[in-house]
Structures are given as structure tokens and as C-alpha cells.
Design a protein that fits this description.
- It is a single chain.
- By secondary structure, the chain is an alpha/beta fold.
- The chain has ten helices and seven strands.
- Strand 5 and strand 6 (241-244) form a beta hairpin.
Length: 321
């Protein structure tokens, strides 16, 4: 049972956001204290809501999704186009674990008829699979540049993740002939976000169709909007509406009970609060990737619904590291 229901979580954050807006032109000790309060509250709510994805609470969460999730064009696509769906939950900076699971799926299954859903940090794994980006090639091409770009900034990756992402990944996607990648992911990827109706009332919404690459990036920012972590704002503005991390209203979006769920803490012993701490050392992040890969390979029954898509060449899997 939650100490703070979702509605009151967002109302409280909204209260502090208005205080910051009123003082946006001056830096005071009072403003710094307000920043600390916002970060503390969001971290507390993030950890609290992450526990809602545990197996013993799945039914409750499914009922909540039906109430909070609006109708979406993507959820009404004919089943003969997409036979199965995979959902990546929120993860914070544990999204590298998701990438390890995604690498296992990419190497062992034909995912051309699979739809991907994601919240927050899970959106990176969903996009990687939807765009069919080879993990090792993408890692080798992008990670050194991300590290270099973070080193050039005073606060490292904090406040700068969106800017760094555009600086590194746009050129890479163009180099692998995926210049208009929004056309590939539109209708195939569904991202969950929390929108502030009338600037005050929280409601879950889903992005599934895009008309530009910038639109995809804006949606990824909205679903991952941990205040002051990925940019310098409490909220992310998309189409004139304020958005905040999708984990606050739907930590693991699904289409129905057959959606295959991926959650970093269902097999591993990772500390959930650790997902809020960024890691820049490649060795640490590769360990998370390897752990995700190993856990996915060690639980074959979890992927039973994908068995019909298993690649003929897929043999006994093992950890890549």
C-alpha cells in the first residue's frame, strides 16, 4: 500500500515547481532548499512506485492502467501485424540492465513482429530493438563519445543527458542509414508518460505515432523526465503540455495480460535506489549489461510466448562477458 497516492505525489511536486518559477531569475538559499526538497520527494516517489511492479501487485497495477491509460491508435493495430509485445519498465540509470536483456532478445529471436512498450529508462532498450541496432556496434560507436561529451560539461551527465543524446545519437543514426528513424518506430513503440492536465492533475498518456525525429526525442524525454537529472527542468513540455516521468503513473505499460514484462529487479539483487545514481565508468555499465543478458538467458520460461520467433541459428546462450 502506498503512503502517497499518485494524485497527491504530483500535486506536491507541482507546488514546489510554482515556487521555483516565481524565483527563476534569482539564485537564493531558499531556492536551493526547494531544489533539494523536489529531488528528495521525487527519489522517494520513484522508489515507492518501483515496488508496484512486483508480481504480487500485478493485478492492482493492471486495473490502474486501465483507468489511467487513454485509448491509443497503436493499441488498436491488427494483431496480424504484431503478434506479441514486450514491456520495459522504468529503471533509472539501471537502463544498462535493460540493454543486456535487449541484447539477448536481439541475438536469439526474430523481433520483426513484436511491439515494444516502455517507461522512463526502458525506452532506450525499446528503441534499440525497434530500430534493430546491433548492440556491440552501437556501443563501440556511441559510448566513448557520450563519455567524452559528459566530461566536457561541468555537471557531467546530470542536466545534460538530452543534449548529449542529440549530439551523439543523431549523427550515428544518420551514419547507419536510419536518418528518418521516426518512421520505423511510429506505431511499433509505445512510450508511457505522465501529463499534467490543466497544469495540475496527473494523468497517464502514451506516445505511439510521430512525424519527426525531434518528436521521438521529445517523447523519450517526457517519459524519462526525472526532475533536474536529464535536463534543467522539473517538467518537460510536449505539445504545450507539461510531462513528468511515466513511472509516476504507469511503471510498466502493457497492452494486455500477455505482454512480456522486463523489470530489472525481478531476477537481480540490484538496489532500486541505485538506479538514481549515474555511472560513467564503462566497466560498471558493462557489468550491468552482462547481468541483464545472463538473467534473461537463465530464465527461458519467461520467453515462452516468443518461442515461435526463435532464430533457427540460436544455440545455447551464455553471458557475453
Amino acid at each position: 500500500m502506498k503512503i502517497f497516492p499518485y494524485k497527491y505525489q504530483l500535486i506536491l511536486l507541482q507546488f514546489y515547481h510554482k515556487k521555483l518559477i516565481r524565483r527563476r531569475h534569482i539564485l537564493t538559499f531558499s531556492k536551493l532548499r526547494t531544489y533539494k526538497k523536489v529531488l528528495f520527494l521525487f527519489c522517494f516517489f520513484f522508489i515507492q512506485n518501483a515496488y508496484a511492479t512486483d508480481d504480487d501487485d500485478c493485478k492492482t497495477n493492471h486495473d490502474r492502467r486501465l483507468l489511467l491509460s487513454p485509448s491509443s491508435e497503436a493499441t488498436s493495430l491488427p494483431e496480424d501485424i504484431f503478434g506479441e509485445s514486450i514491456s520495459f519498465s522504468s529503471s533509472g540509470f539501471h537502463f544498462f540492465y535493460h540493454l543486456g536483456v535487449a541484447r539477448f532478445l536481439q541475438e536469439n529471436y526474430d523481433l520483426s513482429r513484436v511491439r515494444f512498450l516502455a517507461t522512463s529508462g526502458g525506452c532506450l532498450a525499446a528503441m534499440m530493438l525497434a530500430l534493430d541496432l546491433p548492440f556491440q556496434e552501437t556501443w563501440d560507436a556511441c559510448y566513448p563519445k557520450v563519455y567524452e561529451a559528459a566530461q566536457k560539461r561541468l555537471t557531467g551527465p546530470l542536466f545534460n543527458l538530452v543534449e548529449i543524446g542529440k549530439e551523439v545519437f543523431f549523427p550515428y543514426l544518420e551514419s547507419v542509414r536510419k536518418k528518418d528513424f521516426y518512421k520505423t518506430v511510429s506505431g511499433r513503440v509505445i512510450l508511457s508518460s505522465t501529463v499534467m492536465e490543466w497544469g495540475f492533475f496527473p494523468r497517464n498518456t502514451r506516445f505511439s505515432h510521430w512525424h519527426s525525429n525531434d518528436g521521438v526525442i521529445d517523447s523519450m524525454t517526457a517519459t524519462s523526465q526525472i526532475p533536474f537529472f536529464i535536463n534543467k527542468s522539473l517538467f518537460c513540455s510536449v505539445n504545450g503540455k507539461w510531462h513528468i516521468d511515466g513511472a509516476l503513473t504507469d511503471n510498466q505499460p502493457i497492452i494486455d495480460e500477455n505482454t512480456v514484462r522486463v523489470f530489472p529487479y525481478m531476477w537481480s539483487n540490484l538496489w532500486r535506489i541505485g538506479g538514481l545514481r549515474p555511472r560513467l565508468h564503462e566497466e560498471d555499465n558493462l557489468k550491468l549489461v552482462a547481468q541483464g543478458y545472463k538473467d534473461a538467458a537463465a530464465n527461458p520460461k519467461h520467453w515462452d510466448r516468443l518461442e515461435k520467433y526463435r532464430k533457427p541459428s540460436a544455440q545455447q546462450v551464455r553471458s557475453p562477458l
